[in-house]
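sorry to bug you again but im stuck and you know this stuff better than me. theres a chain ive been looking at and ive put its sequence and its fold in token form underneath. id like you to explain what the token line says about the fold, in plain words if possible. anything you notice is useful, everything is just below.
___
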Amino acid sequence: MRRRKIVIFSFSKILIQLVIFLKCPRGEDGYTININQVEPGTSNQINKMVSAMSFYAYRLMVRSTENRVLNYRQLLHQYLFDMYAKIEAGRLLFIRLNQKKLRVDEYIHLKDAITNDSDPANHGKLVILPSTFSGCPRNMHEYAQDAITYGRHGGKPLLFITYTFNPNCKEMAQNQTNGQSKTDRHDLVARIFRQKVKNLMNVLVKGQVFGSVKYWLYSIEWQKSGLPHSHILIWLTNTLRLKQIDDIISAEIPTDKNLYNIVIKNMVHGPCGAFNSLSPCLKEGNCSKMHPRQFIKETQFATDGSPLYRRRKPKDGRQTATVKMKSDSVVIDNRWWIAPYSPLLLKMFDAHINAECCNSVKSIKYILKYVHKGSDQGVFTAHSSNNCIDKIFE
């Protein structure tokens, strides 16, 4: 029997039936490019087409009736991954077919060709990825140049805040159904995290809880364990004085009961050192976060300009805490494992929010490190028979 290959276009409406057949048990059609939009009031079709992003966002919406897709658990992750790959393929196809509209002729493509290939003879037609395509080199370098502009006009940022999503927040518990765990709903994690970051930025910038904000910049990263976090840089209009730091940043175990519970739950580093020799922060037997610290009565700056936060002794009326480990409990004081935090932000968001007084422009490079690091992925090259440089393939 003669074999033949069956090629299915990535925007075929039957693709989803072949990839995840449980999603379409009755053979329902998936997304295709010729779905017309309708007017909300009259339900009349209009000439505009539904985008792949809008189509799958609609399929993932939480409704009063049960949405079967959201109950697929691990299969939901595969569905999201495949459909986003489909969305991105559509964007790349649009870019490839609309190079003239994107005015790629205005790009310095000859210089790019020489830089990339080191062969001036190989400067055929270029397929350019514009800076509007998220994650491409032009996009990342554009953000890096914006950040450098902030540093040139505003100097060093004054606050460095790291917000990590709390998977035990009440919003997660309220939206999980049918015995779902937190790892079953990455879509829910992403949505709630986005809303939390927007609220946090509104508190910092519009609420001016630390003073008038001149510039702000943040990046979002996803840990391999699945939790997203955001690194935020804040330039204040007025410079922070040494005595003002203790009013907005603390590195001590609080005496307030509610704040005490939040700090012990979210802001204790480790344990590490002699209590846990397998802690990932240990390098050559020493904690890379420089714990334990020294007792200090007042906040001061080190010789390199970094702040040494106030950490008072228990005999001065400060609190101690008991940290539970796998097989034992450890009593700690202000020297041990308390990450600097903002009491106000912790009470508002009940999550890990590390707040630091920043005194170096190196922090800009830190939050934009993926411009230099690249992605965790295999490296390969694709060669074409014609002398054409294609940024999408690269």
